[in-house]
Amino acid sequence: MPKFIIRLLLALLLLTAEAGAGSRLLDDFRSGAGPGWEAKSFKGETRYFPAVADGVPCLRAEAKASASGLFHKVEYNAAAEPILAWSWKVDNIVVGGDARTKGGDDYPARIYVVFPSLLFWKTKALNYVWATNLPEGTAIPNSFTSNAMMVAVENGPAHLGQWRGYRRNIYQDFRKFFGTEPPPVGAIAIMTDTDNTGEKASACYGAIRVETLDAAGSAR
Questions:
Q1: What is the mean pLDDT of the segment spanning 134-155?
Q2: Which of 191, 137, 131, 198 is nearest to 158 (CA)?
Q3: How confident is the model at residue 5 (pLDDT cuts 50, 70, 90)?
Q4: What φ, ψ does residue 65 adopt, rounded to 5°?
Q5: Strands (E), 54-199
Q6: pTM summary value
Q7: How confident is the model over 90-112, as a mean pLDDT?
Q8: Contacts (Cβ under 8 Å, ≥6 apart) of 116
Q9: Which residue, of 58, 102, 161, 169, is most buried by count of CB atoms within 10 Å of its CB?
């Protein structure tokens, strides 16, 4: 084999390794929820099933007065891999949704990062949500527990029916909202829920990735 071909192949292999070094895929949902996801029901069952939306493989969620989610246990250091990257497409807002009240604690799409503690009541979570009345960029404690922060990455009906992508620096967010260094991440979860309002909601979840700062560049 000519030397220049060998060098080209080596260069391509090196570029491929570097491209993947700072980003790892949790799931792309091409075949539905892959190994590692566990169902957790709080009230009723939200349906999760594989789908294709606008040509994008995804996991579709449909809730009807229900609240159940999917949890993926994964342990890593948020300081080393601070970026959570994901996309979703939401069909409708929860009209009665209001993050400031227990009766309105429903969202057509949410993804959250769980930071476990040996003392379970000290477990904390960052919830990134598509809100109804909470302005985009706003973060408030969950109406049921101050150990969970609700962060509105999207608000209202303006971008319904569109794929929307996000990158959040969970390390910075944890320090900002909880005022301490984060413990290791223990799980990432998704949930579409309408148990408090009794409404219907549906959304599609795209690929979820964990990234280093070098891989992600700037984070939204």
A1: 95
A2: 131
A3: very low
A4: 50, 40
A5: 56-64, 67-76, 83-90, 107-115, 124-131, 139-141, 148-155, 163-169, 185-193
A6: 0.87
A7: 96
A8: 123, 183, 184, 186, 187
A9: 58
Q: Is the dihedral of CA 30, 200, 146, 38 positive or negative?
A: negative
Q: Residue 28's beta-bridge partner residues?
A: none
Query: % helix / strand / coil in the chain, to the nearest 5?
Result: 15, 45, 35
Calpha distance 126→146 (Å, rounded): 11
Answer yes or no: is pLDDT of 6 > 70. Answer: no
Q: How many residues does the chain have?
A: 220
Residue ranges per structural domain of the chain: 24-216
Mention every residue, 6+ apart, whose C-beta is less than 8 A from residue 8.
Answer: none
In the CATH scheme, what is the code of domain 24-216? 2.60.120.260
- The whole-angstrom distance between residue 24's C-alpha and the CA centroid of its chain comes to 14
Tokens 């990062």, residue? Answer: 113
User: Starting from the edge strand earliest in sequence, which strands make up the sheet with 67-76, in order?
Assistant: 37-43, 67-76, 185-193, 107-115, 124-131, 148-155, 139-141
In contact, 130 and 106? CB cutoff 8 Å: no
